[in-house]
Amino acid sequence: MLRAHRPLGSVMLLSNPLSACVIAGSSAVPRGGGGSGRRNLHGEPSSSSSSTWRKPELGRLKLNFDGSSKHASRRASIGGVYRDHEGGFVLGYAERIGTATSSVAELAALRRGLELAVANGWRSVWIEGDALTVVDVVRDRARVRAEQDQRLCEEIAALLPMVDDMRVSHVRRQGNRVAHGFAKLGHGVARPRVWRDGPPEELLRQLQRDAEGK
What we know:
Elements: E1 21-24, E2 27-30, E3 40-43, E4 61-69, E5 75-83, E6 89-99, H1 102-120, E7 124-129, H2 132-138, H3 147-159, E8 165-170, H4 177-186, E9 193-195, H5 204-211
Helix pairs in contact: 1-3
């Protein structure tokens, strides 16, 4: 049975964000090690990409994120979801971000997810998305060139050291349907929205299927 609960942990406010991006010419890439303390980053090879959602281990929360950009108008929105080791809903978010490319939307979705982790004091997080380039940027295997992408990479890099133990993986679209659902909801919200007590009704079925490994 799908279980929903309120997020745990004390609130941690962002302060003194640092730039952990190395900019070479017109490229930027986040690199770890710029923050205080030790951060463990566990990456997975691209060949291990799954088509189904996988539960995190006990003691770790999992963030799935997604960006949505309409081709004709380029109107974009973002969304994401945190779940626990039983597949239980912890938190979801969605918002409109104006006009943007698909890469900007994906990066903005990840940035917002990390901001929520830091704000809630979550220090052990599994990050997963279906945009391989964005996942590889976090893994330090890819670089971005567009100015807005670079800015978002720098903001993401400033947040990464605030998560002590992080796992990063790529998932195919089929395994990221709940995050995609939140991103689609973002097109219709008037202001940034965060769900804490329970998920939107239209996403309950897919959350249940993911929790059951279907």
